[in-house]
Write a structure and sequence with these properties.
mainly alpha, Growth Hormone, Chain: A, 16 helices, globular
Length: 394
């Protein structure tokens, strides 16, 4: 059927589900492990998270360009998921902050290696009129894994008497299963254009061919990332208002559940309506989430803020992927995803470091008020962005 998503998109979604279940199980416990077991400060946690995400973004540039140059997306995708799987046993074995930093660095490097080729592969195998739905589905399944991971963390924290190291061992199995599904279940398109024009366009220095509409989108993505610092601060906020340690991962469950439920409907909307309106809506939702979290004085409000934060992600993240795919020439699609994520990752690094410093200096309320102000600025930028006379909006 014309409106049926390709099987490869579903397989990539399942891979994302399994790997995210593994990663988020670790991620939901890592702030507690760093602060409670290894004695890290909030600024150190913010720096680790920011450097980790920026590493992923930087790596995407090179892997995306390589996938364009060789016209092969799957090998790099397998390499990235495989590296992430190999890091999972390191977290429970960590004896110092340095171990965690190294494992988190390698894990996010794996994410960076796979990210741009995988996102370009989704566009390669999906009809243009279904790209919003395809990216929304992948994000939805990815977020379902993000629900499963913290839920498993909570269950095993109760089962294993809050032994953080023992619980993190649970993350190993789904990570390696994800790699197996990817190897067996995903195929690249067999027919690729290898004309001389495409060969000339497939060079590492060809970012200038991406066009002005793409660079406006990159600017918007950077402002959005500045407003959206690491989600580790949601976990720490819930703990700061009195949520028991063993239940703290449920904050990530709440956020990811809303993200999973909203991503696919938002993706289908992205195929049908003005993208500026969706971006502005996403910014408004993020402002609301930050204000709730800033005002939170109970676990219930922390959960509410995390849920609204998840809605913002559902509205915006698949939409940005679709916009990148729509604005990039097919032969430069991997490079485009890499550049976009590099700039956004750099902004996320800055936001996470500043958020940690501000938390240490002025407390959590100041951190989330800063986020709300930046999200409001992103909303203004979305309203300013002009739509082309035909085709998708900014």
């Amino acid at each position: 059927m014309k409106d049926r998503l390709p099987r490869g998109v579903w397989a990539l979604g399942v891979v994302s589900l399994l790997m995210d279940a593994s990663s988020e199980l670790v991620h939901s416990l890592l702030p507690l492990f760093l602060a409670g077991v290894l004695g890290a400060s909030m600024a150190t946690i913010g720096a680790i998270e920011g450097v980790a995400e920026a590493t992923a973004a930087l790596t995407k540039v090179f892997s995306g360009a390589l996938s364009d140059y060789f016209r092969r997306r799957k090998p790099l995708t397998v390499l990235g998921y495989g590296l992430a799987a190999l890091t999972k046993p390191v977290f429970p074995l960590a004896a110092s902050i340095g171990w965690v930093f190294a494992a988190r660095f390698a894990d996010r490097a794996g994410k960076g290696i796979r990210g741009a080729p995988r996102d370009a592969l989704v566009a390669d195998i999906t009809p243009p009129e279904l790209r919003g739905a395809a990216y929304g589905l992948r994000q939805a399944l990815d977020s379902a894994g993000a629900v499963l991971g913290p839920a498993l963390a909570v269950a095993f924290m109760l089962l294993l008497a809050n032994d953080l190291r023992a619980v993190m061992w649970v993350a190993v199995a789904p990570a390696f299963l994800a790699v197996a599904v990817l190897v067996v279940g995903v195929r690249e398109p067999e027919e690729r254009s290898i004309s001389l024009a495409r060969k000339k366009a497939n060079s590492f220095g060809d970012a200038g061919h991406l066009g002005s509409a793409f660079w406006v989108l990159v600017l918007m993505g950077a402002v959005f990332a500045l407003a959206r610092f690491s989600e580790a601060f949601l976990v720490l906020r819930a703990q700061s208002v009195g949520l028991r340690e063993g239940l703290v991962p449920l904050v990530m469950v709440a956020m990811s559940l809303v993200y999973a439920l909203s991503a696919y409907p938002a993706g289908t909307l992205a195929d049908r309506m003005d993208h500026r309106r969706l971006l502005m809506l996403g910014c408004a939702v993020l402002v609301l989430a930050d204000l709730i979290l800033a005002a939170a004085n109970s676990p219930a409000l922390a959960f509410a803020g995390a849920g609204v934060w998840g809605l913002h992600l559902g509205i915006t993240q698949g939409l940005f992927s679709k916009l990148v795919a729509d604005r990039a020439p097919p032969q430069l699609r991997g490079s485009a995803f890499g550049v976009f994520n590099l700039v956004s990752g750099g902004a996320l690094l800055a936001a996470s470091v500043v958020a940690g410093l501000l938390w240490d200096a002025a407390g959590p309320r100041a951190t989330f008020y800063m986020g709300a102000a930046l999200a409001a600025a992103a909303a203004l930028l979305s309203a300013w962005c002009p739509a082309p006379p035909r085709g998708p909006g900014c």
